[in-house]
Amino acid sequence: MAYIRFSSDQCILNGATYQRVPVVLARNHRPVHSINTHLRYRIRSRNSLPSTAIAKGYILTNFCSFLESDELVIAAKEKRRAVRDLPYLLHSIDDAVLERWRNRDELAGLHPRVINSKISTVLQFLWWARKIDDMPHRIGEEPGSPVLVWREKRQYKTVLCSELLFKGGRLFRKPKGVPNAHEMDNAYVRASDTREDLAIRDNLIIRTAEECGLRCAEILGLRAEQVPSLDEIESAEQNETQLCISVMGKGQKERDTPFPTGLLREILAYVNITRASVMASPRCTAAHTRIFVSHKNGTPLNEQYISRRLSDCFRDAAAERRLSLQRVRARFANETIRTLVDEEIARSGSIKDIREENILNITAELMGQSNKRSLRDYLETELKARVSHQMRKLHRKS
After folding, report:
1. What is the pTM of this model?
2. Domain containing 204: what range?
């Protein structure tokens, strides 16, 4: 069946250097030209991080494997020889094929949101390929198109819609929680319940998300040369100034993120001692400057490892809380909004006169977010809690 491999050397696309660029191959070990071209386009367009392109590569590889296995089943039923040419199968896609793929995943117990994400990835690939020679031309908005879609304007973007996507109540899920102080303490205890070098590294990753609001990919993208020297850290502490590190966010957009000096001290110690000993090991063959590395061979960590590690760290929390590193980042947003609300109340003297847009803009800039919808929800929750607290105080006085 189709499978995925990654480039072992650095790949330069549109002037930027990337590692582990995905390459999809068919069962005959030949690269799938259309899909590989699409993945490189996604990286070059700078609209998505390489990790996003890797996730899409896995989804498209899964779809190619399904096309090959589905062709074997159909050929056996029709008593004919199966087509082994994957490009031909890609040029024969229709809604019936996508529906069989969806039904297979539904029987396997996948969540409707996951199935929607997989189908949407294939639809985006077909929509991109429809105007390019030698690519599958199967999708359209006209009646009778093999893959029938339509476009809808939703908030700030236009999305592809299909009858194959699950809708409505089937997608209902409980909102994710934001870790409280007790849950964070338990997570740090779990992260420390291992070898000393791993405990130091994993605690620093969690602290960076909690105290700086960085995404997982942004944390793993930090480099050793970005960490200030000890003299710079001590000078900042004496002068009570902030130290910032340039972070590469979504869409390859750089932003300067303030780091607490205490956290920078511990990161510097990790780089100079723990990381240095790993990189000096004979088993280490990777030459790079990423801060957080594997304790075995010094290779950069990936998001899948961090996701598994954080799931283990938060296993003491209730399952419905669905805590992860992204939710730790949400905790940073909550704490930042709470601090800014305090400052606005101190400035204006009343909760009615605070500048809500100013709070949202500052928080969004710190977190590198363009969409403020979730931040607005956090702000409304904070304001409701404060108003409710004031009403209870007035009621007790009366």
Report:
1. 0.62
2. 181-323
